[in-house]
Amino acid sequence: MRPFALSYARPAVKPEATTPYTYDATRQLNVLPDGSPATSSRLVLLATSATASTAGSKTHFDD
Amino acid sequence: MTVLVLTCEEDLTADMVVANLHDLGVPLVRLDPADLPGRIDLSAEYVGKGFHGYLKTDERMVSLSGLRSVWVRRPGAPGSRAAEQSTWLTEESEQALYGMLTATRARWMNHPAAAVQARYKPWQLHTAQQSGFAVPATLITSFPAVARQFAAAYQDLVVKSVSGKHPGDPPMVLPTTRIGLDADFTAVAAGPTLLQQHIRKQADIRLTCVDGRLFAARKEADPEEVDGRFTQNGSWKPAEVPDLVRRSVAAYMSAAQLAYGAFDFAEDGSGTWWFLECNQGGQFGFIQLDTDQPITQAIATWLAAAPLA
């Protein structure tokens, strides 16, 4: 028998793969193609939803 | 002295704090425990009456005695990127890494032992009650008959996961969901189920606590909306913290031994903030983006302070 709560689960929406930044091990943070920190771009932060309340839901359960 | 940041590389929220630490001129080492063994090496010797050791990642090395603080953000499981992964290797790596780190004088945000306890939702609910928060009537049970009685008493209920985790295979999400009056509770016997009185809310509240500094944000909600994480409407705005809530947060954080906590409340039509949960590792970047509240600066300042004497 399927647990009660799971009858209310729904398929996860796969986020669009838009990560226009790469990790810079020297600076220890992610950078854009022009070398500026990814966090300097509000648009990047919003577009990637990387800081959203559900950003960690896939691998962590701390929303 | 050095700040140790435990998180994955793609964690942009951690970047926000790392940038602040750079601005403060504070040395830091960022690593993901998933890379142990592999890109991370460690060593500690226990000889005589003390111990000394170090961590190495890429080109950086830090002495365990040189750590001022440890920030546990979004670390991967130790050993999970090893060439030959195993449960045993993960346990060995976790014991070695966290075992030696917890023996240092470093301050923790948050200490692993406190974090484990704080993740238990039943513990959260009880601690919230003891701290003076308004807590919705809640039932966790595997007895279908008890679930039916609870539903009869409170009528309007939501169901949510006990652990906060979403089902994994295949990838699913389990938002907090309102259940109908005609729900069949037979399947409650198949697993512990959390049912809670539905609070008709006029707003969601996210209150971020950084070592006693409170940053509250409010987002207006449709009273029919249940789980604001899965809706895109509205934006967060700074909010004043009622004195009663302020005192309860202080009591909760003290009981939980947490340096950081992200509280979720539902604000009802009378303005009461109903405690839903306190997430010891909750996200904060989205709040700062909307409100410009200096949460990252508060975290960086806390991490940059001196270690325990």
TrEMBL record, chain A:
<dbReference type="InterPro" id="IPR026496">
    <property type="entry name" value="GRASP_targ"/>
</dbReference>
<dbReference type="InterPro" id="IPR025744">
    <property type="entry name" value="Rbsml_synth_pep_Strp"/>
</dbReference>
<protein>
    <recommendedName>
        <fullName>ATP-grasp-modified RiPP</fullName>
    </recommendedName>
</protein>
<dbReference type="Pfam" id="PF14404">
    <property type="entry name" value="Strep_pep"/>
</dbReference>
Automatic annotation (TrEMBL), chain B:
<dbReference type="Pfam" id="PF21068">
    <property type="entry name" value="ATPgraspMvdD"/>
</dbReference>
<dbReference type="InterPro" id="IPR048936">
    <property type="entry name" value="MvdD-like_ATPgrasp"/>
</dbReference>
<feature type="domain" description="MvdD-like pre-ATP grasp">
    <location>
        <begin position="2"/>
        <end position="112"/>
    </location>
</feature>
<dbReference type="InterPro" id="IPR026449">
    <property type="entry name" value="GRASP_SAV_5884"/>
</dbReference>
<protein>
    <submittedName>
        <fullName>ATP-grasp ribosomal peptide maturase</fullName>
    </submittedName>
</protein>
